[in-house]
Amino acid sequence: xxxxxxxxxxxxxxxxxxxxxxxxxxxxxxxxxxxxxxxxxxxxxxxxxxxxxxxxxxxxxxxxxxxxxxxxxxxxxxxxxxxxxxxxxxxxxxxxxxxxxxxxxxxxxxxxxxxxxxxxxxxxxxxxxxxxxxxxxxxxxxxxxxxxxxxxxxxxxxxxxxxxxxxxxxxxxxxxxxxxxxxxxxxxxxxxxxxxxxxxxxxxxxxx
Amino acid sequence: xxxxxxxxxxxxxxxxxxxxxxxxxxxxxxxxxxxxxxxxxxxxxxxxxxxxxxxxxxxxxxxxxxxxxxxxxxxxxxxxxxxxxxxxxxxxxxxxxxxxxxxxxxxxxxxxxxxxxxxxxxxxxxxxxxxxxxxxxxxxxxxxxxxxxxxxxxxxxxxxxxxxxxxxxxxxxxxxxxxxxxx
Lengths: 208, 183
Known about the structure:
The complex is a heterodimer of chains A (208) and B (183).
Chain A: H1 5-10, H2 13-18, H3 29-57, H4 66-81, H5 90-115, H6 119-123, H7 125-160, H8 167-182, H9 187-205
Helix pairs in contact in A: 3-5, 5-7, 7-8, 7-9
Chain B: H1 15-53, H2 92-95, E1 111-112, E2 121-122, H3 128-135, H4 140-151, H5 160-175, H6 177-180
Antiparallel strand pairs in B: 1-2
Helix pairs in contact in B: 1-4, 1-5
């Protein structure tokens, strides 16, 4: 899965979007190009994400630095399972992120369209615009996060721990050990991320 | 032309230069917005990953291996703190309190919980139940507080630099390399 760096470098959203086959209708072009570009980006970043997940899961029990301990763990993983294991958890990351994007953007656009028709937002002018966008992003993001949470839990488990199992078996194991709530573990912190992320994203893409 | 304020309504003296400045402005603010979000949101990520990685496992089979499990903790460091309910509920000190000349008065000497799996051998003053309690948590706020208190406040931003590297790379790859390096 190691895509050569040069290929990734030139595959940007714009490039893709302008070069899509003409069989894809114009309205869908952003969605298709965005999905491909995002998939490539996620795949390229996956080893960094593995490192980051392990680093964040780490809690100090010895005097070694967290960085060292995680690097030791990863290098022994690579020794045991080969270079490919650096991309461990990539499939689950994609299962989490791609549906999240799709659901989020569809929900955001349709909610914002719906809200912009309400008087209360129309009357408030620029601020109303912001509020409508923020509310749509928040609701849509929360829903999308909820739907994809089991993949997030499984991804963390897959990346932090060694052991081979299919995704379905891993999820089944989580369900068995911790009940259905176990598959939605960590939903609250993830949901709390949505609101500030939406607000900052709106403000930064519409700088005053 | 240097005085052109991005986004203002002045008639452009040179349409191209005003357009360029505002595109640059937009791209800088988009990138810095993403970075600011990461900065703000990393503690929540740390709590989330810790919650998800907490292994509630029933003890591994008493062959001492546990290699048959699909998600055996094997991270390159001690997993003592990793399991939340190891069957360790009582502090060693309470159970095996003894006055011994060898180890000083009133210290708990080597307690061994032999619950059929790798037993934590405890030295004096070290209580497994307390240590486990410090490292495990069930809720978001509890997690934030415990990590900040027992591991230092900077531990809440653990993993920030990989996050920023990955974000930088991703912005470049999705938006195109020329967009993430405003020149």
